[in-house]
């Protein structure tokens, strides 16, 4: 089948990430979508800027309308941000019968009702997973995974920059302006950083989440918005003394009188999971009547995390107009003819770190012998503890943490350790995973 041809508006951080991801994971994406996806035409404000991606094989222009009007492009990916031009381009793409994938939260929150109505008339899709919480598939989770629930509330850290600033104020005792400058340097912040700091960006995202959760039209102008600029270093410290963290939350909840939509700094008990979401990470808690509270966590900004959501939307759209209904969401995520025969590893070839506990006679040379037997199998020790013997006892517990090792090597080592006279009984083993 011929590749799907995509037009890209914007070759900045997320645009570059999208090009890179589509190129790097080309085969896997094609096995999932049922067709190759190719960016053929892209618009950038400046053509001579250094890029984070290769633009080989992509026609480049400074005129985004050229990309939208190109008869070859079937899907338009809008990543230029802002409202007016983005809206004009999106409506034009819809008029031309093209599907649109966008990461533009301001566009959807403020003009989504109109855009969706026009798209419905033209029979095209508008997808916007990347608009909320970057790479976290929160829209898919709420719109699809949780549909059996009546959603009662959701609360999220949905602006990475604000969270980064508050985290740095907490951990590094740094001043607000200083941290904001770093967030800008790192490329997390919006073009206008007051959007991050004053809660506008979070309010855009909350508007979208609330509509999906409660089935209400998008109503950005009804969100109560407060930013973090009045949160002082002393507030962060006092809150900590009281057992709280200050987080900038977007909260949407169902009340007897209506839906409450608010974005503001919030004291959260330190033990609450959301309180330990730090740095540029985002997390959204959604509570439904059947499932109770659920938590979705991940990178909420950045080139490839956001591109991950853009590509997911692209694949959804491609499946929609390419495949028979039964293949649109393949049972095993990949198209059935494209399943691979990658072998599943036997357990003895799996690699993990280990916690080992054994009882050893408390006499010279025993630990050295255990260390030697581990070393013989190429197992490196990360930490070792020998406990005091119980009164009158001759044996002591020895606890060892190892670096990562193949299962078969650990099996051999334990067999040899257990064969030592000075080791009593079995070596108790628990695998260690840091999930880094
Ligand atoms: N400025 C946004 C943030 C980028 O900091 O979360 C992702 O929408």
Write a structural description.
- By secondary structure, this protein is of the alpha/beta class.
- It has helices at 13-24, 26-33, 64-69, 84-95, 105-122, 138-145, 160-171, 176-185, 194-197, 200-214, 233-241, 303-322, 366-376, 407-418, and strands spanning 4-9, 37-43, 59-61, 75-78, 99-102, 126-127, 151-157, 224-225, 244-255, 258-269, 281-288, 292-299, 351-361, 381-386, 395-402, 405-406, 423-432.
- The chain has 3 domains: 4-137 and 303-338, NAD(P)-binding Rossmann-like Domain (Rossmann fold, 3-Layer(aba) Sandwich); 138-299, Dihydrodipicolinate Reductase, domain 2 (2-Layer Sandwich), CATH 3.30.360; 351-432, 2-Layer Sandwich (Alpha-Beta Plaits).
- Helix 4 runs parallel beside helix 5 (105-122), helix 5 packs parallel to helix 10 and helix 7 packs across helix 8.
- The protein is globular and about 85 Å long.
- The model has no long low-confidence stretch (mean pLDDT 94).
- L-homoserine (HSE) binds at residues 134, 159-161, 188-190, 196, 201, 300-301.
């Amino acid at each position: 089948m011929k590749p799907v041809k995509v037009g890209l508006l914007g070759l900045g951080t997320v645009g570059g990430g999208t090009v890179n991801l589509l190129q790097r994971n080309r085969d896997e994406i094609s096995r999932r979508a049922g067709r190759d996806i190719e960016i053929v035409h892209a618009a950038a404000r400046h053509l001579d800027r250094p890029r984070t991606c290769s633009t080989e094989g992509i026609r480049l222009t400074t005129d985004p309308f050229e990309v939208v009007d190109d008869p070859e492009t079937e899907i338009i990916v809008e990543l230029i941000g802002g409202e007016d031009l983005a809206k004009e381009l999106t409506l034009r793409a819809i008029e031309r019968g093209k599907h649109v994938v966008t990461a533009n939260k301001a566009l959807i929150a403020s003009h989504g009702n109109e855009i969706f109505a026009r798209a419905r008339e033209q029979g095209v899709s508008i997808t916007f997973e990347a608009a909320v919480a970057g790479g976290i598939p929160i829209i898919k989770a709420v719109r699809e995974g949780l549909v059996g629930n009546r959603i009662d509330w959701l609360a999220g850290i949905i602006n990475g920059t604000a969270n980064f600033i508050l985290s740095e104020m907490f951990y590094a005792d740094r001043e607000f302006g200083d941290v904001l400058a770093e967030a800008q340097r790192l490329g997390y912040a919006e073009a206008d950083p007051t959007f991050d700091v004053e809660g506008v960006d979070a309010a855009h995202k909350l508007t979208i989440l609330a509509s999906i959760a409660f089935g209400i039209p998008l109503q950005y102008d009804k969100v109560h918005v407060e930013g973090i600029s009045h949160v002082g270093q002393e507030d962060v410290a006092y809150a900590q003394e009281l057992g709280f963290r200050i987080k900038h939350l977007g909260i949407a909840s169902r009340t007897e009188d209506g839906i409450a939509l608010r974005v503001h700094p919030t004291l959260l008990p330190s033990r609450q999971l959301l309180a330990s979401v730090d740095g540029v990470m985002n997390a959204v808690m959604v509570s439904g009547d059947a499932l109770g509270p659920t938590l979705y966590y991940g990178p909420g900004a950045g080139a490839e995390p956001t591109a991950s959501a853009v590509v997911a939307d692209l694949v959804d759209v491609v499946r929609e107009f390419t495949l028979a209904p039964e293949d649109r969401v393949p049972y095993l995520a990949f198209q059935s003819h494209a399943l691979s025969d990658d072998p599943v590893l036997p357990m003895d070839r799996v690699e993990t770190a280990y916690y080992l506990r054994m009882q050893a006679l408390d006499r010279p040379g025993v630990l050295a012998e255990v260390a030697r037997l581990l070393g013989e199998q190429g197992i490196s020790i990360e930490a070792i503890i020998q406990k005091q013997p119980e009164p009158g006892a001759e044996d002591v517990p020895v606890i060892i943490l190892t670096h990562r090792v193949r299962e078969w090597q650990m099996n051999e080592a334990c067999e040899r350790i257990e064969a030592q006279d000075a080791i009593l009984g079995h070596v108790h083993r628990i695998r260690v995973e840091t999930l880094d």
